Amino acid sequence: MNRDELKAKLDYYKALGYKVPQMKYIKTEEQIAGIREAGRINSLVLDYVSERIREGISTQDIDDWVAECTARHNAICAPLNYEGYPKHVCVSVNDVVCHGIPSKRKILKAGDIVNVDCTTIYNGYYGDASRMFVIGETSPENERLIRVTKQCLELGLEAVKPWGFLGDVGYAIEQHASRNGFKVVRDYGGHGVGIEFHEDPFVFHYGKKGTGCLIVPGMTFTIEPMINMKKSGVRISALDGWTAYTKDGLPSAQWEYTIAVFEDHNEILSK
Ligand code: MF3
Ligand code: CO
Ligand code: CO
Question: Which of 182, 233, 184, 222 is nearest to 200 (CA)?
Fold first, then answer.
């Protein structure tokens, strides 16, 4: 199918009442190659963090590593100055759900669970991914939260089928979280990514099968479930306007991939 035929097909679905992605967010082969490269560097930056993260370092140290490693690859940290965000990376510890701001005063200690979320711009293209790290040893419950959250992401990815629906993805994620007694955060979601940081569509981590945006080959988006131990509620720090905490003070975990959809398979562009 060429782009004109694809556009006609999407117009047809739209007329039938389906939610469809805008053509500008259906990437060309060339664009996907660019996003793949940005995603590859983004993963290298996360590798660099994973080799260094340990008890006793500050979350500012992680910010320094991300800035340094990204610059070494001639790339740019997308978070810096994004809507006023003050640092190069998000580092979210324990009850921080997402958007934790690195600080010299925040020292990692044994038992902490830490999400590091990197977004890299290379040659104008974006890759976005996050991983969980355990400092020393943590509780079995924290370990299980981290494991189940990763499984939620993998199951969400398996539910991505061309000409399926994003609701299938959210459904798979929510089912697995709730089966395990955990709660999906509803205030944040995945997103189209690649030529901008946050593109349409919004990728819900809960939903009903057969609903939501149509999944179309050429789409690139993130899946990035945030899963809370007991309650889904989130509150944003009044002090910095960014840091999202669980309302109940219990831990939260998150993993994120950037993926591309093709006619016959999905590809992970950054993990
Ligand atoms: N990387 C985050 C995401 O996955 C967004 C962070 S926005 C920032 O979408 F400004 F906090 F960096
Ligand atoms: Co993202
Ligand atoms: Co991210």
Answer: 222
Sheet holding 226-228, edge to edge: 183-184, 226-228, 252-254
pLDDT tens for 228-247 read 999 999 999 999 999 999 99
69: enclosing H helix or E strand: helix 59-72
Q: Hey, which residues does 96 pair with through a beta bridge?
A: 245
Distance 232 CA to ligand 1 centre (A): 19
C-alpha 67 – ligand 1 centre gap (Å) = 15
65-72 long-range Cβ contacts below 8 angstroms, 24+ apart: 66/116, 66/118, 69/44, 69/45, 70/41, 70/45, 70/118, 70/120
Which atom of ligand 1 has the smallest separation from the CA of 78?
A: 12
pLDDT at position 94 is 99
pLDDT tens string 43-100: 999 999 999 999 999 999 999 999 999 999 999 999 999 999 999 999 999 999 999 9
Q: Which protein residue's CA is at the shortest distance from atom 2 of ligand 1? A: 117
Most informative mutation of 70, 85, 193 for ligand 1 (most atoms within 8 A of CB): 85
Summarised one tens digit per residue, pLDDT across range 106-122 is 999 999 999 999 999 99
- 117 DSSP β-pair partners: 90, 130
Structure tokens at 23: 């053509």
pTM for the full predicted model? 0.98
Measured distance CA(166)–CA(160) in Å, rounded:
7
